[in-house]
Amino acid sequence: MVEITLRVNGTEHSVSIDTRVSLLDLLRERLGLTGSKKGCDHGQCGACTVLIDGRRANACLALAVAQDGREITTIEGLADGSDLHPLQAAFIARDAFQCGYCTPGQLCSAAGMLAEGGPSAITGDLAADPPLTREEIRERMSGNLCRCGAYVNIVTAIEDVSG
């Protein structure tokens, strides 16, 4: 067991954990933050995506012990009190979810993606900061799967927020 301290959605938590515990299991089982979903538990679906120090990460693959001192943002921390994050409002307005299981990961990934900028694998000029086209959004969100197939509305909602 090891003692770690991390800030989750603006609140500091000190916990004693086994070094093998994933960040996802810590969030869900120890901190009661069940918004991040356990989909595949192998880092392939993106349902568990959270922001670690503002960058997207699959919480099922991140060891909790490695997050000591870091800032974690989950779906529960995207909104500002009762004011929805612009992406959350856009997902609702564009009906960008069906069953909703992937939605927390989609939203966290989209928030991180919008903050990242820079080129993607499909960008012709890797030194450029290309405009955020539908193709760029699809490429940058490709690590987040939706079994219901709501991709068209997800991309449109992200486009609405990206301006």
UniProtKB/TrEMBL annotation:
Matching InterPro entries: 2Fe-2S-bd (IPR002888), 2Fe-2S-bd_dom_sf (IPR036884), 2Fe-2S_ferredoxin-like_sf (IPR036010), 2Fe-2S_ferredoxin-type (IPR001041), 2Fe2S_fd_BS (IPR006058), Aldehyde_Oxdr_Iron-Sulfur (IPR052914), Beta-grasp_dom_sf (IPR012675)
Organism: Actinoallomurus vinaceus
Pfam families given in the database record: Fer2, Fer2_2
Keyword terms, alphabetized: Iron, Metal-binding, Oxidoreductase
Signal sequence extent: none
Name the UniProt record assigns to this protein: 2Fe-2S iron-sulfur cluster-binding protein
Keyword set includes Glycoprotein: no
Domain 2Fe-2S ferredoxin-type: 2-78
Keyword Repeat in record: no
Domain of life: Bacteria
Species lineage: Bacteria, Bacillati, Actinomycetota, Actinomycetes, Streptosporangiales
